[in-house]
Amino acid sequence: MNYTVRLADEARKHFARLDTAHQRLIAARIDALAKDPHDKRLSKPLHGNLKGLRSSRVGGRRIVYAIWEQAMIVYILSVDPRGGVYRDL
């Protein structure tokens, strides 16, 4: 059973600014996360101030998301380059 995917406004803006090739890669990863957001091959849990969030690496970009189990929603907070993605959360 797939999870529903929702994007925060900021993540949607960053995704829209990507070139088509990167958009395809990110979209494919988001589809995979919708099937199993806990898959250890696709993502890792974050620690410290970001505990409860997960991060998935796609090239030089990171997808940071939360999982709402009860509603079966993957809520994507950020799609940014690795250097600044965690700072803005």
Describe this structure in words.
- This protein is of the alpha+beta class and 89 residues long.
- The radius of gyration is 12 Å and the shape is globular.
- It has helices spanning 9-17, 20-35, 82-85; strands at 4-7, 44-45, 53-58, 61-68, 73-81.
- The chain has one domain (4-84): 2-Layer Sandwich (YaeB-like fold), CATH 3.30.2310.20.
- It has a five-stranded mixed sheet with strand order 1-5-4-3-2.
CATH superfamily: RelE-like
> What is the share of helical residues?
25-40%
What is the approximate shape? globular
pLDDT under 50 segments (min length 5)? none
Descriptors for this entry?
89 residues; alpha+beta; YaeB-like fold; 5-stranded mixed β-sheet; 3 helices; 33% helix
What is this entry, summarized?
The chain is α+β, with helices and mostly antiparallel strands and 89 residues long. Helices cover 33% and strands 33% of the residues.
Question: What are the SSEs and their pairings?
Answer:
Layout (H helix, E strand, L loop, with lengths): L3 E4 L1 H9 L2 H16 L8 E2 L7 E6 L2 E8 L4 E9 H4 L4
Parallel strand pairs: 1-5
Antiparallel strand pairs: 2-3, 3-4, 4-5
